[in-house]
Amino acid sequence: MTSDRALIRRPSPRLAEGLITHIERVPVDVELAARQWQQYVDALAEAGWTCVEVSPVDDCPDGVFVEDTMVVFRDLAVIARAGADERRPEAAEAERAVAAQGYRTANITEPGTLDGGDILKIGSTVYAGLGGRTNQTGIDQLRGFLEPLGAQVIAVPVSKVLHLKSAVTALPDGTVIGYEPLTDDPGAFPKFLAVPEEAGAHVVLLGEGRLLMGASAPKSAELFRELGYTPVVVDISEFEKLEGCVTCLSVRLRS
Ligand SMILES: CN(C)C(=N)NCCC[C@H](N)C(=O)O
Predict the structure, then answer these.
(1) Does ipTM come in above 0.95?
(2) What pLDDT sits at residue 1?
(3) By its UniProt entry, which PANTHER family does this protein fall under (predicted)?
(4) Residue of 239, 251, 246, 252 whose CA lies nearest to 62
(5) Is-contact 4 50, C-beta < 8 A?
(6) What pLDDT is stored for residue 132 in this prediction?
(7) What is the pLDDT of residue 38?
(8) What ligand 1 atom has the least distance to the C-alpha of 245?
(9) Longest Cα–Cα distance in the chain
(10) Which of 21, 200, 201, 230 has the CB geometry, 3.0–4.6 Å to 217, for a possible disulfide?
(11) CA pair distance 224, 208, nearest whole angstrom
């Protein structure tokens, strides 16, 4: 069990109006989404995580994707400046919530843009996806904040999906997992494992070898089982319709 905390934010009643960029719009069932969100939160809690709710932003359809509001490294939370104008109002309450958890904060400022979904941390290596939502200035500012804390920030291209973590995440041993057709440059990562489904590229490390992942990637779950991990599966279909995945729905504050 872990005593780590996760910031979460409940879905807006306007969730169905959330942004989409790389996929076709299909109707979102907001009530089903609310139930799926609760199951996601319950899965974190059952794995020993303390879930801390960030005040809702009901006017922001994408507010539930709270991961995008910040990057947490050691005792510092770098508050993002969203690449999509509509999402900028999401950051203020998230900043307040993470500060209340005892974190120092710093801010990405204009003309920098950065979404938390573009940042993949593996130990002290911080991969930053340079693409639709995060620009070079945002990455330079992030580097300025994190390198004094011992991070190495490496920019990698993202052009086929919304965020870097739409394409790749990492297993507990640091192996980057990705669905190759959507990964710009698998060679950017020292260890890369191709998974058989797009959603198989998305895992949240729950601790003790458990991987929180979406129900839409059963073959990848089987692959992870064969590697000795324990998939913890949640159905997040309504968030996937808005280019969301398991990582986007929380900010993990690891002690
Ligand atoms: C890793 N991913 C994908 C994220 N962290 N965020 C997803 C945001 C989706 C939202 N509809 C948008 O377009 O902003």
Answers:
(1) yes
(2) 44
(3) DIMETHYLARGININASE, DIMETHYLARGININE DIMETHYLAMINOHYDROLASE
(4) 239
(5) yes
(6) 85
(7) 98
(8) 3
(9) 46
(10) 200
(11) 14
